[in-house]
Each structure stands twice: as structure tokens, then as C-alpha cells.
Amino acid sequence: MRRALGSLLLGLLSLWLWLTPGMALAAVAGPNAELPQLFDQALQASRQGDFGQALPLWNQVLELAPADAAAWSNRGNVQLALGDPEAAIADQSKAIELEPLSPDPYLNRGTAEEALARWDAAAADYSWILKHVPAASGRHGQPTVPRASALYNLGNVKGSLGDWQAARASFEAAAEARPGFAMARSSAALAAFQLGDLETAERQLRALIRRYPLFADARAGLTALLWRQGSRGEAESHWAAASGLDPRYRQREWLLSMRRWPPVPVEALQQFLALAG
What we know:
By secondary structure, the protein is mostly helical. It has two domains: about 140 residues, Tetratricopeptide repeat domain (Serine Threonine Protein Phosphatase 5, Tetratricopeptide repeat, Alpha Horseshoe); about 100 residues, Tetratricopeptide repeat domain (Serine Threonine Protein Phosphatase 5, Tetratricopeptide repeat, Alpha Horseshoe).
């Protein structure tokens, strides 16, 4: 199935919308000609972030096709976006019951479990993906995108538990699994910063900025690192770019709970802001 990556509620955790109806929906589409159109409407509202409109549409889809795993998983994502992780977990679990070999609902359920700080449950769902999704697939032998996202989310779980060495390894594996996964590379650099490997962290952040000059996360991370090293002038230059790109990097709680930065870079950036402001 084709999929689109979405960011719901937790900002930088990976959630999946199934873009095509499941087999169960296709089976009932004959006597319910409006069903595919209704699915598309629900999907469109979900992708546009109109979750209040999307939820009743998914409810209607499920009334007509209660055995469609894609609809259950997509509604679960909307439930999470609306702030109901328990309902999201229930919907993803139903999707897993219907299609136990699909990685998408495991990934989405793990994200909902993270919202409730159920770290062991989330890690188990991500680990299921790593066990059952091949390490390499496709014409060029590239690992699947769900696997890369599971590695990234698992890194966030490890970081939340204070195991930044394991988090760093997961972020690095996610970056290797999906070329161009800039946030995974930035998270790996920040984990290196947390662990005191400033040389590697600086090298990785500078490489990201060269490739993605408008990437606020790398700019903000390098600001904190340069400040820690005493390079105030260059730190201010990178901060001018980062703060213009995304003002949320000024917010300590957002950095810790939403972006999930390690505490050492967060404190370094806060010290820079306190003195530079």
C-alpha cells in the first residue's frame, strides 16, 4: 500500500495514513457506491489537518466497512490528533487484529502509547516492526520507510528513559535506513552532544546545515553547541537563522516534550538565550 507520513500531536513522531482502502472496503464498495468517495473525503480531511471534520467521516466509513483495517488505523491517527490517545490505541489495536502483518498500525499505536508515557509498550510495537519488516527491500535494496520511522521513534523512547547511548544508536540506524531523514541525523548529533562527543556533534550539525540551509533544528542545535564551546559570535549568527525559521526553539518545554531534545543541549540553548537576550 502507498502511505504518507503525517505529524500528529507529538510533532516529530511518525504516524501513517493509509492512502488506499483495504480489501474489506473494496469488497463492500459494490453495494455501497459512495464508500470509496467517503474514504477519500475522510483521508483528505485528515491530511489537511481538519480532524474535527475527519472523525465523523471515518465513523461513517467504519459503519459501512467495519472490517477495514486502513479505516480503523486512520481514525486512530485522528483520535490521537484530537487528544485521545486511549481511543487511538483502541483503534490501532483493532486494525492490528484485522491485519496483523501490517506495520502501519504498530507504528501508530506506539506513537499513541508514547503520548501516555507507556514506554515499554511503545518499544514493543516498534520492535515488532524491526523484527518483521525486512532490513532492505525495493529495487535499490533500501530499507522500508516504516522501519526507519520505527528506529527513529524507538530512539525517542530510549531518550525518554535516559538511555542516550541507545537513543543515539537508534537515530543513527534510522538515518542510515532512510537517506535524507534529516531529523534523525540531527537527533543523532544532539544525542552525541548529550554524551559529550562534541566533535562528532559539531561535524554532523554542520554537514546538515550545508545540505539543508533552512533546517532550523540543526541551526538551533549548533547554536547551543557553539555557545557551550565559547563561540558566541557564530552562535548568534546561527540563532538568527534558526529563530527566524521556527520561533518554537525558544521554548524550553517544547524542546523537551515535543521536539524531544536531550537535556544538555536544551540547557545550553537556554543559557545562550538568557545571556544573549
